[in-house]
Specification:
Number of helices: 5
Oligomer: single chain
Order of helices and strands: HHHEHEEH
Largest sheet: 3 strands, antiparallel
Radius of gyration: 19 Å
Number of strands: 3
Helix content: 55-70%
Strand content: 5-15%
């Protein structure tokens, strides 16, 4: 089964994206989507030799959490912009020590931080052990670092276990 679907996540993504791009759910569209979803991962598998093992069920839960956090953060940032005077704003640079070790997990972590309004990941240290993040409003930087690590990094460690 793993020879037919070497990258099941990529297969599912290709099928979904093909149907969305064609904007039609007919037999021909689904058939061609399945062909692409099977053939492309088979031919690209040799270029992914050291791919990490990804647990998909916790990954789906993580995606739901990130979408929820994006919605909530939009309202929080809007409240900060509309109601908080500039003199009471506490922007901060946060240095987050990383426990993640794979480049894929670090990339997802940095992307999650950048997708959430109010924070943006700026840089990964040369040694790969620290992530530099800018927060729009962080009155307690240590608490913000602990929150980010507990909310996202702990879940990513479970996904990329």
């Amino acid at each position: 089964m793993s020879r037919l679907f070497p990258h099941p996540g990529l297969s599912a993504l290709l099928i979904a994206m093909w149907v969305v791009m064609v904007n039609d759910v007919s037999f021909g569209t689904l058939f061609l989507a399945l062909v692409f979803g099977i053939v492309v991962p088979i031919f690209t598998a040799p270029w992914w030799p050291g791919r990490p093992h990804v647990r998909f069920l916790p990954g789906l839960a993580y995606c739901g959490l990130v979408v929820w956090d994006i919605v909530i953060a939009n309202f929080e940032v809007a409240a900060i912009i509309l109601f908080k005077p500039n003199r009471k704003l506490c922007p901060a640079w946060l240095t987050i020590p990383l426990e993640l070790d794979t480049p894929e997990a670090i990339t997802v972590f940095a992307g999650t931080i950048s997708l959430t309004p109010g924070t943006v990941s700026a840089d990964v240290s040369a040694c790969g052990k620290y992530l530099l993040v800018h927060a729009l409003h962080a009155p307690d930087p240590a608490a913000e670092v602990a929150k980010i690590k507990a909310r996202y990094e702990a879940r990513l460690k479970e996904i990329y276990a």
